[in-house]
Amino acid sequence: MPYNNETQKKTILSAAKNIAITQGITKINIRSVAQDSGIAIGTVYNYFPSKAHLLIAVIEDFWDGAFAGIDWQSFSNSNFYNNLEKIYSSLYLYLESFKDNWLEHLSLLKTQEKIIGKKKEHEYMDKIRNRITTLMDMDDRLRHYPWTDSFSKEKTSEFIFDNMLTMLRKGEKDISFFIMILEKMLSY
């Protein structure tokens, strides 16, 4: 059965993701992806004009998958701290399914690839930080917190997510101590 354009692109991306999962993201290259997907190198270049484009697609797919397991609708009018634990647990379980620590592999990319990958990663990070800010607004205790310019919800959500990423990189499963610190920090 001949491939259609969308099927070929998905097959190529699937092969690239498989290489990233089994060997690490730094091992992705057009030649290996073409070989693993069974699709000609020229055809791979038609969909992904460079290794950087292919890496961006893999990184996008990675973050889409990481956040796909989070049921944002279930967070309405709930406890902010419980919601953070749900988010963290979902991300932890997703990252645990990879052979090596994905977040560490991103730091091993070449400079230009790293710049492009980091830009895409930051777009996803901004989305999650904005959602954390929204979750703060949904919790009565934090909605009425005396936020200031120097201690804003936005800066606090950035602090929270950056620390969550650090804990994910370290492979920490339990964030109860972090939650306890946040509760003390945000009590008034």
Give a quick precis of the structure.
The chain is mostly helical and 188 residues long. Helix content is 71%, strand content 0%.
What is the topology?
Layout: H1 5-23, H2 30-37, H3 41-47, H4 51-68, H5 80-96, H6 102-106, H7 111-138, H8 140-143, H9 153-170, H10 176-185
Entry keywords:
188 residues; Arc Repressor Mutant, subunit A; 0% strand; 2 domains
**Total of domains:** 2
Structural class: mainly alpha
| Unreliable sequence segments | none
| Strand residue percentage | under 5%
Query: Could you state the order of secondary-structure elements as H and E?
Result: HHHHHHHHHH
Helix count?
10
Q: Give me the count of strands.
A: 0
Which word captures the global form?
elongated
C-alpha Rg (nearest Å): 19 Å
Biggest β-sheet description: none
Distance between the termini: 65 Å
Work out the helicity level.
over 70%
Q: How much is the average pLDDT? A: 84
What does this structure look like?
By secondary structure, this protein is mainly α. The chain folds into two domains: 5-49, Homeodomain-like (Arc Repressor Mutant, subunit A), CATH 1.10.10; 60-185. Helix content is 71%, strand content 0%. The chain is built from ten helices and no strands.
